[in-house]
């Protein structure tokens, strides 16, 4: 397996966590988002959308982190990312989607670059934008976690799964953009529990090979 990614990409971060949790070996290929390498002809031959991650398995290129996570779950079912039962799976998918489908798309690099480029937004305006959408999402995630008996040490039960995989990178980015997370004690507790796990710790941005050279 080869993972095309970037150390600060939260979507690539999700896939690194998932591969680590499944115990799968993979090599990494840096796509430097800070220099626009993702928009190069060479990378667009891998992913015509020009985004990371892309996971290459044999001759197949998998795109979009939710689809990659589903593939890994279906192909390598142990340990499971999804709980047993349709209702429990619906809960997990719903909370994961708040992060992956509501918060993240509004705050990814393409959107932030468009704000500062064509729309001439200042750095402060971009930060305000980012913090607003994090708060909108976390204001929903926190009570869904805190108010459910299904929440355990992790977002669903006592083993990390799909929600944790999506949540941890978003917390990292929220911290980077100076978001006040004091109103989200359950999110912070689960984040801390995740970061005690080697699969999450090894996947964090600062521990990627390119981090020291680019940061």
What is the strand arrangement across the widest sheet? 2-1-3-4
**Overall shape:** globular
> What's the CATH first level of the largest domain?
Mainly Alpha
Strand proportion: 5-15%
**Helicity level:** 40-55%
Provide the gyration radius in Å: 17 Å
Q: Could you tell me the CATH topology label of the largest domain.
A: Glutathione S-transferase Yfyf (Class Pi), Chain A, domain 2
Give me the CATH architecture of the largest domain, please: Up-down Bundle
| Count of individual helical segments | 10
Give the rounded overall mean pLDDT: 96
> Helix- and strand-based class?
alpha+beta
Main sheet overview: 4 strands, mixed
Total individual domains: 2
How far from one another are the termini?
Answer: 26 Å
Q: How many strands?
A: 4
Q: Which series of helices and strands comes N to C?
A: EHEHEEHHHHHHHH
Uncertain parts: none
The assembly state of the depicted protein chains is single chain
Brief description of this entry?
With 215 residues, the chain is an alpha+beta fold. It has helices at 10-22, 41-44, 65-75, 86-107, 109-116, 123-146, 162-176, 185-195, 198-203, 211-214, and strands at 2-5, 27-30, 54-57, 60-63.
Walk me through this protein's architecture.
This protein has 215 residues and is α+β, with helices and mostly antiparallel strands. The protein has two domains: 2-79 and 202-214, Glutaredoxin; 86-200, Up-down Bundle (Glutathione S-transferase Yfyf (Class Pi), Chain A, domain 2). Helix content is 55%, strand content 7%. The protein has ten helices and four strands. The chain has helices spanning 10-22, 41-44, 65-75, 86-107, 109-116, 123-146, 162-176, 185-195, 198-203, 211-214, and strands spanning 2-5, 27-30, 54-57, 60-63. A four-stranded mixed β-sheet has the order 2-1-3-4, with helices on one face. Helix 4 (86-107) packs antiparallel against helix 6, helix 4 packs parallel to helix 7 and helix 7 (162-176) packs across helix 8. The model has no long low-confidence stretch (mean pLDDT 96).
């Amino acid at each position: 397996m080869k993972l095309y990614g970037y150390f600060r990409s939260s979507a690539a971060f999700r896939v690194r966590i998932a591969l680590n949790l499944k115990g799968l070996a993979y090599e990494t290929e840096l796509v430097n988002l800070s220099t626009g390498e993702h928009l190069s002809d060479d990378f667009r031959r891998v992913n015509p959308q020009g985004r990371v991650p892309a996971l290459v398995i044999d001759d197949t290129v998998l795109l979009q982190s939710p689809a990659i996570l589903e593939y890994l779950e279906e192909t390598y079912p142990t340990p499971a990312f999804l709980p047993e039962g349709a209702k429990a799976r619906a809960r997990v998918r719903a909370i994961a989607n708040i992060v992956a489908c509501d918060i993240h798309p509004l705050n990814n690099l393409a959107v932030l670059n468009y704000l500062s480029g064509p729309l001439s937004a200042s750095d402060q305006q971009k930060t305000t934008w980012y913090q607003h959408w994090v708060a909108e999402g976390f204001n929903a995630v926190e009570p869904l976690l805190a108010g459910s008996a299904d929440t355990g040490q992790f977002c669903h039960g006592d083993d990390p799964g799909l929600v944790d995989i999506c949540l941890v990178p978003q917390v990292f980015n929220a911290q980077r953009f100076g978001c006040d997370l004091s109103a989200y004690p359950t999110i912070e507790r689960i984040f801390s529990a995740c970061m005690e796990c080697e699969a999450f710790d090894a996947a964090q941005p600062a521990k990627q090979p390119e981090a020291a050279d680019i940061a």
